[in-house]
Amino acid sequence: MKLLDGKLISGQIKTEIAETVKRDFLDKGRNAPHIAAVLVGDDPASHSYVTGKEKACREVGFISSVYRYPSQITTEKLSEVVTFLNNDPEIDGFIVQLPLPAHIDEQKIIQQIDPCKDIDGFHPANLGKMMLGLPSYLPATPFGIITLLERYQIETRGKHCVVLGRSHIVGTPVSILLSRKASFGNATVTLCHSFTTDMPSITRQADILIVALGKQGFVTDEMVKKDAVVIDVGIHRVPADDTRSGFRYQGDVDFDKVAGKCSFITPVPGGIGPMTVVSLLQNGLKAAQKEV
Ligand SMILES: NC(=O)c1ccc[n+]([C@@H]2O[C@H](COP(=O)([O-])OP(=O)(O)OC[C@H]3O[C@@H](n4cnc5c(N)ncnc54)[C@H](OP(=O)(O)O)[C@@H]3O)[C@@H](O)[C@H]2O)c1
Question: How many Å lie between the centroid of ligand 1 and the Cα of residue 163?
Answer without folding.
Answer: 11
